[in-house]
Fold each of these.
Amino acid sequence: MNRVNDFAFKIATANGTGSASANSLIMQAIFRMGIPVTGKNLFPSNIQGLPTWYEIRVNRSGYTARTPDFDLIVALNPATFAADVAEVRSGGWLLYDSTWPIADHLRRDDIELLGIPLAQMCNEAFGGVKERILMKNIAYAGALAALLGIDTEVLVALTKEKYGRKPALLDSNQKAVDLGYNYAKEHLTCPLPIRLEAMDSTRDSILIDGNTAAALGCLYAGATVGAWYPITPATSLMEAFTGFCEKYRKDPETGKNRFAILQAEDELAAVGMVIGASWAGARAFTPTSGPGISLMGEFLGLAYYAEVPCVVFDVQRTGPSTGMPTRTQQGDLLLCAYASHGDTKHICLYPSDPREAFEMAARAFDLAERFQTPVLVLSDLDIGMNDWMVPKLTWDDLCEPDRGKVLDEKALEQAKAFHRYLDVDGDGIPYRTLPGVHPRGAYFTRGSGHNKFGAYTENSAEYQEVMERLARKLDSAAEAVPTPFVRQGRDASVGIVSIGGCHAACMEALDRLAEQGIQADYLRVRGFPFGAEVRAFLEAHETIHVVEQNRDAQLRSLLILETGVNPAKLKSILQYAGYPLSARDVVAGVGSATGVLV
Amino acid sequence: MSYIAKPKVHTPALTKNALGMTRRDYEGALTTLCAGCGHDSITAAIVQAFWELEIEPYKVAKMSGIGCSSKTTAYFLREAHGFNSVHGRMPSVATGAAAANGELIMIGVSGDGDSLSIGLGQFCHAIRRNLNLMYVLENNGVYGLTKGQFSASADPGSKSKRGVENTMAPIDGALMALTLGATFVARSFSGDKAQLVPILKAGIMHRGFAFVDVISPCVTFNDHEGSTKSYAYTRKNQLPVVAADYIAEREEITAEYEPGSVHHVRLHDGGMVALRKIDPSYDHTDRDRAYAYIREHQNRGEVVTGLLYVNEDQEDMHAKLGTIPQSLTRVPFRDLCPGSQELDRLQERFR
């Protein structure tokens, strides 16, 4: 079997030892060689000491989902060594630090051991404990370069870009890379059968994480106010936005900020600030994760009922409660769809990768202002924090933001009267005004019962009239949210439905199933409420496998609740272990459900 | 019901301010509070203050949380946007609105339950940020809408209507504000309009967080004998220490004061606050001494009132954030979106 540009390896280290730099160096080098590559960081909720793994998959066909089959494991963490040795696929390789011998009971006959005395070499070459540990991690990058055939010129160029401004660091890094590289070349058979050969498949792509991409989306959408409370895995979204604002949002004359970023006291305050800012007319957002959404519930109900636009990013992590904060999941689907007490429903968008995170972030503001309601963008830790290879982001300069129905000073001057919740156009969407613009625009925003004129009411008919209109308004959003992604198989009888970060694994699984003779149609929902295309797909298939990453089949529940589809038609494929979905999970799920051994 | 619009009666004899507006133009909907409620007096004082300041009502944003006090923002400035938000969370909504549009003149009205229990965290953090907002705490020591439970501002020993004595230590909004670095701290009494109106005027014009704690008796649940937030108790034990006058830039200083008895504080808008000491030993410029003085008299059962502390030299939230002076809502989209060419360029970073 040809394994050139088609294999996976994993690096096991301890958190806080600098391995992240080495891992990104390796991944970026492969990307620059023009070879499709994916990296998944499995890290602990810890700053130093707990085990961490970095998985790199190289795939010439461009499959980017996680794979659990590791051809090579670089096992440098004594704490996980036994488990790491056990995880190498039969016939694979184990790279270890041969400064210390391997215990006999850990040896395996079916894999090849590649020993490099990393600690010994680095102790001899470098002084100081910290540098020795850091450089040990750079040295394995050098060894991998030799073993896998990473272009050394690319590696040198990358090291220069990273450390060029710090000559001492650059020298140490270069030295460490050489140590690993030269040792491997002299003592081991290089390259291995799993190896790299330059391609030209990444020219139009970038390596970017979803939080950075979403932050760019906010920047391009013209968001000016961001409020947040630090939480993994959403923190880097606001950090990235801050960085972009510092670069692009300074008033050229005064140097003052054309943005306001508020680090709130908690998530309640964060969403309160967003609602206040949006009410005043700014595009505002807050990034958070599941625990934050739980806290924001009351405010989201206010924004729904008082019809205040706001954008909330939920970078989902493993729940319930604190759960596993550094692992991925899609556990907030139901929570976000109906957050808050009383009858509420929210527009949700489900990006599947960083490129969609960028597009949907920008789109979220248009939808929030068009429908005057909260919009929740649900990505997850895998999308948000891992580097993905995606096509370059594009922006249409003709694109003007949709600010929705806002009466400006001129319109108010000419208006006879203004009533905040009156359905003037018959589309369920009333007109709104901003404070400080015109006396005629004044109204009283409240979460208490109100009639269509915006006045307080305890009259049942008046109350229900507004609630009915809100339901119509949200229903109409179903055709405004992004349409689902659909791929039709040939003569397919089964359907697969998935959401968000399941996409890459599902696409790969479709190909694998086809190889086994199972043709499946595929739909990925991209927005909520579900539109006509989703309903049609559910109607058109007798058996539908619903693939999602939570225990309780939340997407399946949503589909049943919202579309009335016969529940018996929907079979669940669930993977909620905390790591990204792989094609194998999907193929196995379809296989066991259909009784076909795959 | 508060949706009943107050009838506008044509009364040409009413005095007009420089904008040609009468006090009626600064009113709102009819109150739905109990007859004699202290909050209604505060509403009247707010109307008076904005009228005297000659502020166009539509430039104001009225923010509130939930509770009797929070309803009152509907009862003044009908031409201003109001936001009756979520219980205890008004400060965050106000913070966001101020961040978006720093040109808004903002007033927040809250109660002791809204501010000192469910909303204590947000109250504290709005002070930390020195949000440019006048925050009026209508303080009556009880939960009115839920019928008479003690609030966190109830004094130990104060009795409920049923005769139950409060045993919990109180949270004092003014002391809290002093501790947290508020740049304007006042306490007044809803029954003392002569003192309250000038404090409100100064508070509105102060750039930064102006905290005004107003003892505002609840006639239905906390105005009986044994209550320390009743009309009778407050009248008897009120100890005014500093009187404040707000003098607009355009006005001449006409009042004559004894030399040394009056201290002027220049505000950012060019106006001035004249502070007249009633107790010569009180120092409204020293946070720690003000704190000690209030505590000392509190221990004697006295309620110290007046503009208790003012510091105009601290940066407000906008200055701290470094935002442009004009509203962010008016920055054109082309100045906010870097465009497609720049997107191409910046993505080199991700290669």
Amino acid sequence: MIVIKYKKIWYLLSVILIAASIWAVYQYGFNPSIDFKGGTITEISYKERPAKELIESKIEQSGASVRTSGESNYVIRTKEPLDADLGGEIIRQNTIGPVAGAELQSKATKAIVVVVLMIVLFITFAFRKVSKPVASWKYGLATIVALAHDVIIPTGIFVYLGREIDLLFVTGLLAILGYSVHDTIVVFDRVRENLRINQDKEFEATVGKSVNQTFTRSINTSLTIFIMLLALYIFGSSATQSFSLLLIIGLIAGTYSSIFIASPLLVTFYKLQNK
Amino acid sequence: MRKHIWISAILILVFALIVYFFLRPGAKTPFRFGLDLVGGTELIYRADTSGVEDVRGAMESLREVIERRVNVFGVSEPLIQTERENRLIVELPGVTDIDKAIELIGKTPILEFRLVQDETLISTGLTGQYLARARVEFNQTTNVPQVLLEFNDEGGKLFAKITREHKGELLAIILDSTVISSPVINDEITDGKAVITGQFTPEEARSLVRDLNYGALPVPITLDSTQTIGASLGEVALASGLKAGVIGFIALSLFLILWYRLPGLISVIALVSYIIISLAVFKLIPVTLTAAGIAGFILSIGMAVDANVLIFERAKEELKKGKNTMEAFHEGFKRAWLSIRDSNISSLITAAILFWLGTSAVKGFALTLGVGVLVSMITAISVSRTFLFAIYDRN
């Protein structure tokens, strides 16, 4: 019952983290990758890494960024396709036109909106028979609050870390959404079942009991996914490193929110409507 | 109640067969890997289809024209796809010279008329750019399909000159470096019309006409995005993805066995069957495996355990209430099903929308995640249930 009893503490913790995340976005701003703004990213491998200044002087474009990568590589970001001969071996190059970038941006936004809408509709549908004592759409509302929490906090952390916001980032966010709902549904499903069994019990007690019953499961499942993601982060391809970090942060936020935010919110909604 | 033992034996046999036929090294169906894992070049073109009535037809013939050009290039297993109304995606595995690839695909000769002299082909200067239009006709006496070409004014004059000066010779009609037919020039032709009679089926004649009408490219295209990945980089990405999967799986198995003991071991077996089935499905669909796709699969292995964890935790609760082991597991499977179903539907919704969002990297992730969720619903419930009951029944 700790979860329900001290719900204000859990709320406060989340509110602080969310506020800090929004502040981070406001303060540092997004660092969109070429996926969304267009441009060229080139990684060149050298046997012996030449001086950064030398590389920079050869690129005849303004606004180019040159960063070291790996043992002796440079990652170069330019607005226009790179045509200067910089020696070494180009091991990867990716150019995205401005139109494609804008298109991806609008698609990504659309995808996020559609995922959230579909999930809310689905939850309202799945819990349609549970209308006492809390209306089924309030389960949906509690889920959205948890979802917002799970998306805002990883975004804030990524912005704070200065990581690039690319298409994989959006994909990761959506995967987090999917997982977070998955996790929340398991708890809500238990509430649904317990409401059927003990109709005379206090709503608050029923929710508390449901959270307790699903607590080990929530932690264990998160742990199994955490193990896989950690392996991916440590041993996996560098292409998916940021992605797995994002998923790890999202997993923690999602597990937290389904236990400490979504379920207590049901109780809060119940109390509000009975005032 | 020995049937669970029998079913278990059959399941093991089925999995062994799947491994033998699909997954053993050297099995016929290979995995399909994305460019980011094998290295190569991806070119994305945007087609200007404004002013075209039959957009789908134009895009299809654009794809065919580009495919022919790529085949001339001699790339193994190129992939040319159209996406939505105006995007053309060309994937060239193994090609890392991006400029050469762009040049080849962007070039626009296509239709040419050449004179055949001593088995060599002599350029006449007459090309598809002088073609006004082409259409299918049926010969009025023999009823055999033939292709009528109409040149524009300039082309008509050039054609008249060629036919006047080279009577009796062979004129080869060449499409994208392939000789389509080489008829004999019987007479000077001044009306700017030519007929290609060959052994055409009506279908062939129609597709030739379409190719000719879309002589150059049917619609103008502009290069929008490019991506090149060196082969060595792809190799490293694939190897490290595999390593992460194997290490993660071992750690996960240890956790499950230490925490849940015998049922944990069974869920590991269910997980192995999950991996076998998923990999076979990846080959059969086929799913193009990218770095993100492998990440999706590794993530789904973690998620696949969820159903078992739900069931086992539920069974533990029922045991505490005083039920015996069999009853507890029966109850566990029954009660956990609703949670498993509802929670997985939300993951499937996400996967479907991600697939729709799709660039190739995202699609790879969405597909492996979606397939993973579906397969795990089957294996985590039916496979682990069968093995579990087989073992506990015997005791």
Amino acid sequence: MLSIKNLQARIDDKQILNGINLEIKPGEVHAIMGPNGSGKSTLASVLAGREEYEVLAGEVNFLGKNLLEMAPEERAREGVFLAFQYPVEIPGVSTINFMKTAVNQIREARGQQTLDAVSFLGLMKEKMKLVEIDQSLLNRALNEGFSGGEKKRNEIFQMAMLEPKLAILDETDSGLDIDALKIVSNGVNKLRNKSNAVIVVTHYQRLLDYIVPDFVHVLYKGKIVKSGTKELALELEAKGYDWIKDQAAVV
Amino acid sequence: MSEKNSTAEVIAAIEKNLDVTSPVVQLRKEALSDLSEKGLPGNKSEEYKHTPLTRLLEKNFSLSQSNAPSNGIDPTPAAIPFVEGNTVVFINGKYAADHSRIVSPASEITILSLRDALLNHQELVLPFLGKIADHKTDAFTAWNTAAFVDGVFIHVPDNKTVELPILVYHIHDVQSGQVISATRNLVVVGKNSEVSILEKFDSMGSYNGFSTLVSEVAVAENAGVTWYSIQNDKGNRYQFEFKQFQQARSSRVNTFTFTLDGKAIRNNLQLSLDGEGIDSHMHGLYLVGKDTLADNHTVVDHKQPNSFSNELYKGIIEDSAKGVFNGKIFVRPNAQKTNAFQANRNILLTDKASINTKPQLEIWADDVKCSHGCTSGQLDEEALFYLQTRGINKDTARAMMLYAFAGELLDTIKHPGIKEYIDTLISERLHKNF
């Protein structure tokens, strides 16, 4: 589904990704872990299409298409979804109106029929249950005055509404207490199926107890230096990142 | 200095047409003398330094030329759809009785052309006319006072709620030549009464038009006045407007000024809070492009204690349009427990768009709550990106955010038909397709 070959990217003068190679197949969950500054969020940003990052080399193939050539909205329409680490507040734009516009623009691009108000509300109610999000939050302006946990739940609610093929969760667990973590993870798990895939970017192993990965990759200085299964995450939790850094230094 | 010559030219043109039999001839002569003394504002004028109105007039008008006669126009295209109200139409500053229609009962309200009121109701007019709007300190106000031809006179007795709004249409017929018009409104609202007024400006034809418009509004104890101004003239309209409200205790004034088009529009809006317990709100949106100049100068004068005023003006400026905002708040020494708030927020969409904004607070009382804030910037890029990652294309994302920004000014509009109309205007301008 997703094929990343030798991806290199920089922001301003600083090169952050130094050759990422990654293959993701449908149905899989891949965790990307690593110490601060390793490039985890940069990878998520580049995949989502943030303009500030300049791609220097490499290719990213998504469902047979060149992802790097697409504008962010085109990537979304192809089925890529980024759950932001710090979701922005947009005063005056109600979550419901925003969601309806997004859903319908994506449906239109895919040649599907757009939803009228009633059908849309029906879809919304169905998905609200998944992440236990309250209608009152959705009537308000997007993320305005939301707590950290509410913002993250709103991200997963949007994921449920847009049904992406590839979801990238950028440090979704940061700032969440254990209860919020469980609700968010539960939502993500319910959305998983054989044809979609998830990239979980996280610093801590804790999230991976709930969203169990098929593969774990450790990012260090812009490269994947080690890959393994969920046991690797447990090893990192026990030993920290220093042994990875030492190993990488030796190489 | 060219302003001196222009001032003289304007004065000569007014004197030529002065009706010495008019009951207000003394007022006009006084105003002419003030105009001569003050002179039209030049480059060094503090109040007009970002809005070179005199120079624009010199460049685009022949100041002593009479208006070409209007052969009659059909004002229906200018009418606001689906809003029931009293309709008062002025064409080139002259009352058009044929196109006007008063529907509210006479027991509720008197609506006349000012000329008519001066002839038949002097006792209602003379105590107020020329006494609320100061014509000594501003040359355009003096010009208007000396030269006004007509306008709307509205009188609401005590204890009346006027159900239907008064819709005043100011139309320039500029099909055969330039027009310079001077319109004077006088509104007197009795105790405990409520009334809504809407003014709309349009041109038919492609010659230039300049209008001065002065509105004097006396708001008695516990009365409420809502005033909408729709400045969306797609023709070549240059305008100077001065609205002054004199408010008695416990009264409420709500103004909404929407500047969407025109060549150069200068709005002077002044609220004189002459009592305690007053609650007033001023709202403005200037959503301008091409080379439009939109200038809002506001003054809120808290003369007594315990009153509340709030100002919210927002600007969306694109192409090479220019916005100017100057908000003065005066809190007099005895006006303790005043609450006065002001906010001016601007979004500049292009490199050539510009905004000049200046709050001016002069506070002489010591137990008050006052605040002001101005911001100016571009659209939040992070928010735009967020919307794009949800599949919304960049144009729609921009429109959503701009509409959200402008939308705040519609929130407190009580009349659903007027709110809907203005919403439609804004949506169309922002290419709202969501």
Amino acid sequence: MNALTAFFTPNAWRVFRRNMLAWQKYAWSSVAINIVEPFAYFLALGFGLGAYFSLTGYGSLVQFMAPGFLGLTALNTATFDASWGCYERRVFNGVYESMVTAPVDPLEIAAGEYIWQAFRSVLYGSLFLAVIAGFGLVHSWWALLCPVMLALCGIVFAIPALLVSFVVKTQEHLFYYFSFVATPMVMIGGVFFPLDKFPHWALALAWLTPLYHAVKVFRSLVMGTVTASTGLEALWVIAAIVLLAFVPVRSIRARLAN
Amino acid sequence: MCAISSIVYARSLTKRYGAIEAVRGIDFSISAGECYGFLGVNGAGKTSTMKMIYCRIARTSGELGVLGMDPARDASRIKQRLGVVAQENALDPELDVVENLLLYASFFGVTGAAARRRADELLELVAISGKERALVRELSGGMKRRLVIARALVNDPDILVLDEPTTGLDPQARLLVWEKLTRLLERGLTLLLTTHYMEEAARLCNRVAVIDEGRILAEGQPSQLIERFAAQDVLELVDVGGRLPDDERLDGLVLRRERHGETQYLYTADNRVLLHRLAELGFDPPRHVARQATLEDVFLNITGRGLSE
């Protein structure tokens, strides 16, 4: 078994089911938290700030941000639960400890967590998609493919977050990851504003983050401007998953295996 | 004992964590249907030994066989046939009682109606019926421990491994756990446990290994160990100073003498005879306890310190 084939084992899906069972007990509050906060930012920035100007070549700010926020929602929800949540499950609640006492491979646990983050990302992202559709900001049936991209986002953002949760010494150190990695990624990801006026080096940096590519895909799907390059952007994210999946293997095994 | 006929065996087994040698070359051999106990204080190497057996940590050197397999190669297959009650309960606090059992069962491929039936049987066995939908944090310490035992049995294991099954429980809860474990033994299950309660070892174990600082210092049936390292009876004398008659004048009635703090321990075949002789010599111990020897005395005599220290 390797980091990728682990996704297709029954145990990975049992780990996913475990998270689902736990989540069902507080599902409504979780949905509320994951929808209300991005929505508040969206309203304030899009309609509040956006009322003062429009973006040359892109139309209103609110229209520009709507698809970007799909990527942002996926990043936030997967990053937080794969780091903070997984740290809690591993260290405080002993959830993984009992799993590795049973014949569950640590890689199956990781894969189950990635699948779980894909689910969360699809759920919260799709709810957001429904909201922006209600505001008339979705212009194409291509948008029906957004959940697929949301699932890929959930996985690609979960992998580094899970790794961080396995290497930090205390839970508070996760804030380093939020502040130094996740938040800057949002700033240069093309969520809030176009990146045309960025210097080359900043654009190169943005190109290295999965969010940049994911947001481009969401924008094409929502606006109906799908071309071959949209497929390439999606492929970039899939390639990132395939490569990144192998990075945390040693840490995960070191913490959980024999 | 021959390695082939034993369900778990170790030869020169060691475990080192960096510079710390937790297990320093131990040998043991356990037969099917037996209850085998490791008796020792905290840090003696009990938990490390157990974790090597249930494939949680890798051994440093030596041989180890579990169910005819090697944990270094066949961890997954061994785990499939073991029940483990680790020192920490590691119950899932976000799931209820039944969900905890069903999830764990699913990892062994026990699912659906079969899992459900198994869960019901086990909850009845450990006397937690009626609490199916309770969250784990709502259970008492004793119930949690019994739930962990039930969880360890979901895969109908060949061996049940228990690391300090009753540490931290009140006496009543402990009795209930012992009663459940005794029932499992009667059904023919092999039990492997660690404890620092000599009463637990004496009550449950066919054989006990006294383990200290990573080494097995003595091994045998509890009664044999007591006979060999202690005596039938013990007379504990508190604060007698130098007034106690020496061994010669006691006609060899005292088989062994130990002194710890203010207490002298006289090991003898029969307390009544010894007390009678002391009275004849005009020595009337002001404060004393006359009792039967226990594994505690064995431990004291072998290691020079008490189990509860």
